[in-house]
Amino acid sequence: MKIFVVEDDKSLVKMMENQLSRYAYQTFVPENFAAVLDEFLSIQPDLVLLDVNLPYYDGFYWCQKIRERSLVPILFISARDGNMDQVMALEYGADDYLVKPFSYDLLLAKVKSHIRRVYGDYAQSDRARSLKAGELTYYPEALKMVYREASEWLTVREGELLTLLMSAHPEMVKRERILNLLWDDERFVDDNTLSVNVGRLRKKLAAMGINDPIQTIRGKGYALSVVGTEQ
Q: Are 13 and 29 in contact (CB under 8 A)?
């Protein structure tokens, strides 16, 4: 199991690495704190330990960016013990919050708990869940879609959109239904926001070899099409 430790206190990082390595966890630390997301995507860790106070951008920022791309467990480790800090962490997508100074036994217990929850035997059967439309397969828990020999990773929002389209395939999904399910209040989402998300998903589907993968029914909604493919 790979753990990405986003913490700039080198002495604390060293101690956590020593403790985690005893249980066969591989630890990785950012080489560049201005490019945490890029390093996360390169490492593809199984869990993230994330401080709040960091160089360049704070942990809340990186938590939000990581959560847009992955459902990996995120555990904050911070000296900031205010209720609002913990609320913000959870609002940005964190799974847990541990206040410094903390017991290493508690840290290990939380790491094991989240890994067991997400990657344990029960979770593995859940992650195997997939949606199919023609030769297109989507694995929601992994945010990964596969078409023939090609594959693409999705953001959380793109995955939610694809799930709606695949569940209705080959029928159309009304614009209002997409807005209601993907955004809490459609009054604050304009047509451009939806169009941008559809465009991003359409581009990734096309990159796998599916021609014109999402049909726009003007003024009504969208429909997934996996019939036309490149020869």
A: yes
